[in-house]
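Translate structure to sequence.
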């Protein structure tokens, strides 16, 4: 629809220019044909670019959605906190290695637990059973 209106406008402009300049009908028709050829070439280029651009646009949009989801998950993890109830015989570095806390090999993360629970823990060497400790997540 837009292309037809555009062609009609070009035809009208070509005829009006032709008559204003005193051009013959043959010259005006040649100009219209040239403009039509230019329009066809531009339309083909536009379609080629569109064929290349649309999949790229879809890929970019999918990547944006994935990025936003990952950022939301990261923010969720940053703000989420777990909790752990101290049992008899626990100490901070030991409970940091528990599967439900940070997992095996993460005993060095005990200061994170201490910092998150400073209001409760006065001495990091002394924690007592039944204390509910907050476990900060990465």
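Result:
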């Amino acid at each position: 629809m837009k292309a037809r209106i555009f062609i009609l406008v070009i035809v009208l402009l070509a005829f009006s220019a032709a008559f204003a300049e005193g051009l013959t009908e043959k010259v005006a028709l040649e100009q219209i044909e040239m403009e039509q050829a230019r329009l066809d070439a531009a339309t083909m280029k536009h379609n080629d670019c569109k064929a290349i651009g649309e999949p790229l646009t879809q890929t970019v949009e999918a990547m944006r959605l994935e990025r936003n989801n990952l950022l939301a998950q990261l923010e969720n993890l940053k703000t989420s906190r777990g909790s752990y109830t101290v049992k008899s015989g626990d100490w901070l570095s030991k409970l940091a290695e528990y599967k439900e806390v940070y997992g095996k090999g993460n005993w060095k993360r005990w200061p994170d637990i201490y910092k998150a629970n400073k209001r409760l823990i006065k001495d990091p060497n002394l924690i007592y059973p039944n204390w509910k400790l907050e476990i900060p997540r990465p």
